[in-house]
Model the fold of this input.
Amino acid sequence: DVQLVESGGGSVQAGGSLRLSCVASGYTYSSYCMGWFRQAPGKEREGVAVIDSDGLAKYADSVKGRFTISRDNAKNTVYLQMNSLKPEDTAVYYCATGTRAIMVPYPWEYNLWGLGTQVTV
Done:
């Protein structure tokens, strides 16, 4: 099956760290861009960080310097290391795959999504 499965969410105090993982299966993972997005209650889904097939990354201004996206093509996995977490980082975090590394979660750009993992700060 073609799928993305996130893990690593949880509850953490402000200033703490978490590392999210997203494992891809069923397609040629290394050829595609990967993105982390989040959605807080009552808010629209927003881009957090994206990484292209060459490893070039982009970040939302709100997380620059605190979050790091990386990918391990041998493990078909993308990571999001989150440090210095703030209460405003509380959201469900989703990974998605697409052909372009853009920060807006357009459904025509990101056509495969995981089910999400909750992060509470």
Observations:
- The chain is about 0% helix and 50% strand.
